[in-house]
């Protein structure tokens, strides 16, 4: 019979708790914590490298290609290791994929999504979910202020984070890369003059969305490109950034499907 981890003093448990409580150490060591059987399976199907797997005592979890046997933990121990204590019976520890701007490849007609200064991991996860659904070829994080591989971001992505290449770079690096690659840039801007519904979005493009509170950083003004703005007929002047991403990405999908 397999042994069951019964104490939070177990060295493996203490390591997981350190990663959970000190995200900076987790990021430094290049790992992320994936909670839930569905999410762990999707990460494995996408080829992510799992280094450890923990399950709540009594839970039978297995997946074709798994290289290790899951370690069972008593319920009270397992619940200390995860953020979501209800409905979660599996915890996978994965190596965080490391993509660079120079590693990115795309087809003849790329769709690149750039998120500048984003602050909330929940919004980032929701955008990654939409990016996967709409066929985005890469998501580039430009000077973001949130943890892309936090449990909240991973959960909200519903597995999208496992499928779409994700690159984290400084704002200046991203802008230099865009200029070098000659990818047409379309900024979603509060003071934009073009509607996405009357703008041709069928060619290669990079969509740039700003942070929740401040929008796009002023340094983007020096980069050539088009400024788009969603039509607003009410008293509010902006939408949640994840909603904005969904609206504009599906407009790209609609236009390309009709081409």
Q: Can you offer a commentary on this structure?
A:
- The protein is of the alpha/beta class and 259 residues long.
- The protein folds into 2 domains: 92 residues, Ribosomal protein L30/S12 (60s Ribosomal Protein L30, Chain: A, 2-Layer Sandwich); 158 residues, SPOUT methyltransferase, trefoil knot domain (Alpha/beta knot).
- Helices cover 32% and strands 19% of the residues.
- The chain contains 8 helices and 11 strands.
- The chain has a 6-stranded parallel beta sheet, with helices on both faces.
- Strand 6, helix 5 and strand 7 form a beta-alpha-beta unit.
- CATH homologous superfamily caption of the largest domain: SPOUT methyltransferase, trefoil knot domain
CATH architecture of the largest domain: 3-Layer(aba) Sandwich
What is the CATH class name of the largest domain?
Answer: Alpha Beta
State the helix count: 8
**Topology pattern, helix = H, strand = E:** EHHEHEEHEEHEHEHEEEH
The number of E-state strands comes to 11
Give the DSSP E fraction (strand runs of 2 or more residues).
15-25%
Give structural attributes:
about 20% strand; alpha/beta; 6-stranded parallel sheet; 60s Ribosomal Protein L30, Chain: A; about 260 residues; about 30% helix; Alpha/beta knot; single chain; elongated
Secondary-structure blueprint of this entry?
Blueprint: E1 4-5, H1 11-21, H2 23-29, E2 31-35, H3 37-45, E3 50-56, E4 71-73, H4 75-81, E5 90-95, E6 111-116, H5 121-133, E7 138-142, H6 151-157, E8 166-169, H7 171-181, E9 185-188, E10 205-209, E11 226-228, H8 241-258
Helix pairs in contact: 1-2, 5-6, 5-8
């Amino acid at each position: 019979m397999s042994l069951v981890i019964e104490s939070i003093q177990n060295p493996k448990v203490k390591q997981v708790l350190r990663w959970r409580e000190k995200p900076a150490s987790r990021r430094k060591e290049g790992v992320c914590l994936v909670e839930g059987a569905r999410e762990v399976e999707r990460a494995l199907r996408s080829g992510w490298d799992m280094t450890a797997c923990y399950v709540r005592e009594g839970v039978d979890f297995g997946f074709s290609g798994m290289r290790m046997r899951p370690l069972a933990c008593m319920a009270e121990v397992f619940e200390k290791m995860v953020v979501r204590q209800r409905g979660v019976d599996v915890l996978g520890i994965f190596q965080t994929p490391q993509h660079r701007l120079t590693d990115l490849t795309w087809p003849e007609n790329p769709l690149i999504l750039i998120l500048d200064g984003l602050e909330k991991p929940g919004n980032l996860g929701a955008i990654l979910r939409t990016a996967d659904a709409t066929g985005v070829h890469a998501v580039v994080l430009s000077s973001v202020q949130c943890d892309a591989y936090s449990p909240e971001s991973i959960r909200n992505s519903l597995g999208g984070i496992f499928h779409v290449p994700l690159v984290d770079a400084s704002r200046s690096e991203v802008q230099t890369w865009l200029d070098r690659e000659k990818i047409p840039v379309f900024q979603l801007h509060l003071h934009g003059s073009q509607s996405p519904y009357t703008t041709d979005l069928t060619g290669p493009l990079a969509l740039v969305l700003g942070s929740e509170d401040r929008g796009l950083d002023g340094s983007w003004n020096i980069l050539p490109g088009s400024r788009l703005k969603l039509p607003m007929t009410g008293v509010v002047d902006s939408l949640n950034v994840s909603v904005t991403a969904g609206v504009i990405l599906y407009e790209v999908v609609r236009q390309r499907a009709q081409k």
